[in-house]
Every structure is written in structure tokens, then in C-alpha cells.
Amino acid sequence: MTNYLIREGDYCYLEKGEGPTIIALHGLMGALSNFGGVLTYFSERGYRVIIPELPIYELPLLKTNVKNLAKFLKEFMAFKNIEKTLLLGNSLGGHIALYFTKMNLENVNGMILTGSSGLYEKSMGDSYPKRGDYDYIRTKTEQVFFDPKVATKEMVDEIFAAVNDRNKVIRTLAIAKSAIRHNMAKDLPKMTVPTCIVWGKNDHVTPPDVAEDFAKLLPDADLYWVDQCGHVPMMEHPDSFNQIVENWLKERNL
Fold first, then answer.
1. At a CB cut-off of 8 Å and minimum separation 6, what does 129 contact?
2. How far is 178 from 174, CA to CA, in rounded Å?
3. Which of the chain's ends, N or C, has fewer CB atoms near its CB within 10 Å?
4. Is residue 191 a contact partner of residue 105, using CB atoms and an 8 Å limit?
5. This prediction's pTM
């Protein structure tokens, strides 16, 4: 997958394929590799898939919020000469997709939300791992998934390093506060773009009733469930996730 990593100007991103554009947005503790299955699958089926690295830890502290991450996406699309796109967001990435769509409805063909924040943010701040306690961090990372084995040692090590980095801790907490401030409940009924909601039935970070609320509030949404699945369906059940999204894209002619 690193073969498709591009560093250009102020941006670092993965890109593969040609056709209608899908921009995938990772979560707060996520990585570009979270969408590895999406990159391969959809680039081979007539889509251009782009996964930008979000500047969560690079923005000035006062600008470390959902609004400015959505602004980053707007600037990135201008840099890449992308006028319209499908947005795929997991966790915080879903929240950024929602805020971007609120401000730039004309630039969005559709949304795919999975384990998205934007309505329910309590766990984002309350469950932030304790610094220095590796076992605790491993347990919290495993709880993101239905199958704890999905939480590899490499993944746990990366999160452990992040929570012991003062700069990253400060910005993570800033994002958590921003997410609470930017609750999207009142905005969702105005987002008329087709939306595919794919949710793990065993998501403890953003529980299933959050998905149901999204489906009720968004005017043109379809909700799909993935069994024995936690907060990150495209990692835990990539085949099921990709099939659901592909079928939905075909049904919606997107």
C-alpha cells in the first residue's frame, strides 16, 4: 500500500484508481492503513480512491477542531482539482465529512458513514487512555473491535506512543471538546445527499442507537448492519463492508 503514498506540498495521501472520486477520512486514532481494503477494492472497480492524512497534530492548538479539519479537506480538494466527491468517514472522519457537507453541499455526491461521531461524543473524551499504562491502552484498543485480535501490537504501540506525547494529548483533548461543541443533530435534516450508514452491531464507542439516530435525521439515508463488529467495520469485516458499499453505490448510481 505504501506504493501509493504521495507527499506533495503540505499534503500526504494515498491515491489509487481512476473514475468518480471517493475521499476516505480516518478517525482520531486512525491511520491511512485503516482504509487499505477500501483502497484496493474500489480502485479496481472504477473509482479513484484518495485517503489524506489529516493534520490532527499539526494545526495550531486554537485551530485544532472539527471546523478547521473540514476546512483542510476543502483546501485539499482544491489542491487536487476535485469539484465533487463521495465522502467516506469513520469515527472523527465521519464528523469531518458531515461538517464539510454542511458547509459545502454542492461539492458532495454522497456520504458513507461508519462509526461516525457527530451525534454522540461522550466516549471520545471519557475513555481517553491513561498515560504510561500499556496494559490499559491495549485493553481500550481491543474494545474498539468485536474481535480483540484485530488490535495488533503495532496498533497498540502507536496509540501508546500517541498518549505519551504531550503535544498529541493536548490536541486529542481539543478535538474531543470540539466534537461535543459541533453536534450535528440540527444540521442533519438539511443534508440532502444520499448517505450510506454502515455500522457494527457491537460498536461500544458509538453504539447502534447512534446509527439509528443518524438514519432518522438524515433525509436520504440507508442503514446497514455488520454482525460481530465493533467501531471500525472496514477493518474488522472488510469484505462485508466493501460489498455493502458497492451495492449501495450501484443502487444509487454513484
1. 136, 137, 140, 159, 163
2. 6
3. N
4. yes
5. 0.92
* CA 13, chain centre distance (Å): 14
Q: Which region holds residue 11: left if phi is over 0, alpha if psi is between -120 and 50, else beta?
A: beta
| CA 51 – CA 73 distance, rounded (Å) | 11
Largest Cα–Cα distance in the chain?
A: 49
Domain count, the chain: 1
Q: Return the exposure string of 36-63: e unless at least 16 CB atoms fall within 10 Å of the residue's CB, then b.
A: bbbbbbbbeeebbbbbbbbbbeebeeee
Question: Who's near 15: CB < 8 A, 6+ residues apart?
Answer: 4, 6, 48, 49, 50, 51
Q: Under DSSP, is residue 248 helix (H, G, I), strand (E, B) or coil?
A: helix
- Closest by CA to 86, choosing from 38, 37, 119, 44, is 38
pLDDT for residue 160: 85
Q: pLDDT value at position 225? A: 98
d(CA 164, CA 173): 13
**CATH code where residue 83 lies:** 3.40.50.1820
Amino acid at 190: K
The predicted structure's pLDDT at residue 166: 84
Sign, CA torsion 80/231/179/218: positive
Q: Which domain does 141 fall in, by range?
A: 2-251
